[in-house]
Amino acid sequence: MSDLPGIVITGASGRMGQMLIRTVSDSPRARLIGAVERPGHAWIGQDVGAAMGGGDLGVTVSDDPLELVAGAHAVIDFTAPDATVDMATLTAQARVVHVIGTTGFDDSHLKKLEAAARHAVIVRAGNMSVGVNLLTQLTKKVAQALDEDFDIEIVEAHHNQKVDAPSGTALMLGEAAADGRGVLLDHVSDRARDGITGKRERGHIGFSAIRGGDIVGEHDVIFAAAGERIVLRHIATDRAVFARGALKAALWGQGRKPGQYDMIDVLGLNDN
């Protein structure tokens, strides 16, 4: 049992944090060795299983990740950009695989992650599910096949507690579509429409975000032309799909060379 890869989960009390803890605890291929929360959180000092309302798991929630990371094989991190960048400093120092499902990064965050990836494996993806990553590849292929007579729109829906928009998955799909057309997403992205906006720009990629209830995650990529539409869709009904993908990434990263990877790499879908 002790030779199984040891996994630390950050943001233990969050929706994804709790799902990750259950997934790792139940896995025959890994062991949960740490759970991290921010200083002052009510869970600090409690057994994480009891804090989640179940039986003890033998792992105490900590607000000091330094020692935990030093003894880990991987950290799985679905938190916030600043917290993830801080954690990347520790994982880089410890040469520990850092699986990142956090979204909402700006350019300064991404530069720091790039620096950390020179020393350790980082697997970062806007979505960890197998289905979404297949959808990403399909989106790229369809965009390659269709010219600008087909407008591209990405519609995403999430629960009412999500704080960033468009979702990381929507942006990942937008990047795939732009890559398929040989353009940069930043040059063709339409993320906000309100009032008299004028006609739609030919070749642009539009985004729409829906927030409501407990929607886990829904993404449509629409290719619309005169007289026809192609709609690629993924619907997630259980966060377990993201947790299973994140654990797969953590195990895949063992023994890899330092660098930045994504779920396309993990799943062997990269066609380069």
Automatic annotation (TrEMBL):
Entry EC number(s): 1.17.1.8
Q: Which residues bind NAD(+)?
A: G11, A12, S13, G14, R15, M16, E37, G101, T102, T103, A125, G126, N127, M128
Dihydrodipicolinate reductase C-terminal domain residues: 131-267
Which reactions does this protein catalyse? (S)-2,3,4,5-tetrahydrodipicolinate + NADP(+) + H2O = (2S,4S)-4-hydroxy-2,3,4,5-tetrahydrodipicolinate + NADPH + H(+); (S)-2,3,4,5-tetrahydrodipicolinate + NAD(+) + H2O = (2S,4S)-4-hydroxy-2,3,4,5-tetrahydrodipicolinate + NADH + H(+)
Q: What does the UniProt entry say about where the protein is found? A: Cytoplasm
> Could you say which enzyme class this protein belongs to?
oxidoreductase
InterPro entries, alphabetically? DapB_C, DapB_N, DapB_N_CS, DHDPR_bac, NAD(P)-bd_dom_sf
* Assembly notes: Homotetramer.
Q: What family name appears in the similarity comment?
A: Belongs to the DapB family.
The protein's name in its UniProt record: 4-hydroxy-tetrahydrodipicolinate reductase
**From which source organism is this entry?**
Roseovarius tolerans
